[in-house]
């Protein structure tokens, strides 16, 4: 039987205990120094074949719920006079590949989409509790134990890269496979891309081929006018892509 | 001027005479504003504020995790938690440690750049325990067309076929060896 007297003693004790639950220190990735990396990704439009391997791999690796996507592939059709109004489809995010196009002629290409891991990310700026965070190695992550599910970040992301997890009710997004890249592996999407259309890039590593690529190719980011500092670099991006 | 009598504190304002434009002068002599009756109330109020402030600071100290603010306005431990999640795809380096024979075939063929798990699926469990977790062989009838079925949006140089017309019902591996799929000139079908 809990009396009022006992309750008065128990409540502060419970608060103390909860504090130590929150402060629990998990195991850290060995031999990984966060200050030595600055992650981004290279996406080569010329190489993407729309096979959907990246979408499937991401879904499996990160246990993404059905019908939601941390990465997805879009198919663009741009007729000569419709640069401003391209026809875009992405059946089930491209997870099962793409059926034959209903269009003929014009420009047709695939665009893989994902979180741009912006340096000045709008989603991080609007989070009221510090659940969306920018790591010292340049990755935007969600601390799901801290997320309230208020959806501000989902509205703020100009690239539409976030969703609310249907059962956890917390914000979800591409983590750039943080659990893999901190162990020396590449992301699940890059590992499974058969044509090398996606390549993880460490911009702080002077030996990373990204530097040579950025120097010698035409590379753009999505929505540069928003000055988000996007780090998803697209090679040969068409002007019609939004 | 502040006057404090026994239990009444009074503030007496000594004002300059108020004169308006028309020369009318207000009588300001003896204006008294009684602010409060009991000075002890002030002390009690201050005490209550102090208690609330101390309580707030204590509760805040208990509920904000120690690692909050370590790297920025977030919980520093979240980084270690997120990086300690299990890996599902082992990565091609893990495959190549044991399957160097396949690698030798693959690296000279057209599929040199295709990593093992892109076709064979996620196999971190197999890499950890090769004995008890045995991967299933992929079905080439389904697998190959994911990439090679013709689609107008694919890059022009990429090898594409119309599956239904190309093999007349035969599965791909009847003719193509998936690890090095190009047919040698002698093998080419007429």
Report on this structure.
- The complex is a heterodimer of chains A (242) and B (190).
- Chain A has 242 residues and is of the alpha+beta class.
- Chain A has helices spanning 4-22, 53-61, 122-126, 152-156, 178-181, 188-192, 210-216; strands at residues 39-44, 72-78, 87-89, 107-113, 132-134, 140-142, 163-164, 171-172, 198-202, 219-220, 232-235.
- In chain A, the strands form four sheets. A four-stranded mixed beta sheet of chain A has the order 9-1-11-10, with no helix packed on it. Chain A has a three-stranded antiparallel beta sheet with strand order 3-2-4, with no helix packed on it. A two-stranded antiparallel sheet of chain A has the order 5-6.
- Chain A starts with a helix and ends in a 7-residue tail after the last strand.
- Chain B contains eight helices and three strands, in the order βββαααααααα.
- At the A-B interface, α1, α2, β2, β4 and β5 of A face α1 and α2 of B.
Summarize the entry for a quick read.
Chain A is of the alpha+beta class and 242 residues long. Chain A is built from seven helices and eleven strands.
Q: Total domains of chain B, how many?
A: 2
Number of alpha- plus pi-helical segments of chain A: 7
Low-confidence stretches of chain B: none
**Arithmetic mean pLDDT of chain B:** 84
What characterizes the major β-sheet of chain B?
3 strands, antiparallel
What is the CATH architecture term of chain A?
2-Layer Sandwich
Count of helix runs of chain B: 8
Q: What pair of chains forms the biggest interface?
A: A-B, 63 and 44 residues
**Into which percent range does the helicity of residues of chain A fall?**
10-25%
- Please report the first level of CATH classification, the CATH class of chain A: Alpha Beta
Structural class based on helices, strands and sheet pairing of chain B = mainly alpha
Unreliable spans of chain A are none
Number of domains of chain A: 1
Distance between the termini of chain A: 63 Å
Rg of chain A computed from alpha carbons, rounded to a whole number of angstroms: 21 Å
The total of beta strands of chain A comes to 11
């Amino acid at each position: 039987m809990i009396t009022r007297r006992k309750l008065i003693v128990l409540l502060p004790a419970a608060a103390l205990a909860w504090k130590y639950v929150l402060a629990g220190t998990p195991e850290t990735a060995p031999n990984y120094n966060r200050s030595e990396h600055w992650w981004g990704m290279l996406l080569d439009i010329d190489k993407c074949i729309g096979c959907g391997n990246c979408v499937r791999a991401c879904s499996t690796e990160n246990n993404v719920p059905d019908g939601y996507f941390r990465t997805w592939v879009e198919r663009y059709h741009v007729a000569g006079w419709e640069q401003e109004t391209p026809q875009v489809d992405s059946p089930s995010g491209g997870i099962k590949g793409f059926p034959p196009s209903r269009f003929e002629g014009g420009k047709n290409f695939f665009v893989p989409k994902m979180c741009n891991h912006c340096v000045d990310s709008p989603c991080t700026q609007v989070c009221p509790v510090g659940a969306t965070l920018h790591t010292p190695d340049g990755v935007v992550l969600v601390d799901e134990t801290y997320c309230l599910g208020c959806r501000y970040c989902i509205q703020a992301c100009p690239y539409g890269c976030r969703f609310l997890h249907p059962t956890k009710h917390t914000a979800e997004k591409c983590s750039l496979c943080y659990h893999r890249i901190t162990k020396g592996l590449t992301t699940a999407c890059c590992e499974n891309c058969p044509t090398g259309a996606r390549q993880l890039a460490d911009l702080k590593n002077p030996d990373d081929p990204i530097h040579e690529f950025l120097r010698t190719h035409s590379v753009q980011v999505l929505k540069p006018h928003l000055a988000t500092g996007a780090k998803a670099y697209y090679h040969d991006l068409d002007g019609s892509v939004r | 001027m502040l006057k404090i009598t026994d239990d009444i504190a009074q503030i007496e304002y000594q004002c300059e005479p108020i004169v308006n434009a028309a020369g009318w002068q207000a009588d300001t002599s003896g204006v008294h504003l009684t602010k409060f009756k009991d000075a002890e109330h002030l002390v009690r109020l201050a005490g209550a504020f102090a208690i609330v402030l101390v309580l707030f600071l204590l509760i805040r100290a208990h509920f904000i995790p120690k690692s909050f603010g370590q790297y920025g306005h977030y919980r520093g431990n979240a980084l270690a938690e997120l990086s300690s999640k299990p890996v599902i795809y082992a990565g091609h380096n893990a495959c190549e440690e044991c399957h160097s024979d396949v690698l030798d075939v693959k690296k000279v063929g057209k599929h040199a750049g295709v990593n093992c798990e892109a076709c064979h699926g996620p196999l971190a469990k197999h890499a950890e325990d090769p004995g008890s977790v045995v991967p299933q062989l992929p079905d080439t009838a389904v697998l190959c067309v994911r990439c090679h079925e013709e689609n107008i949006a694919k890059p022009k140089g990429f090898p594409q076929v119309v599956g239904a017309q190309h093999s007349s019902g035969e599965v791909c591996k009847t003719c193509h060896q998936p690890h090095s799929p190009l047919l040698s000139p002698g093998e080419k079908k007429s």
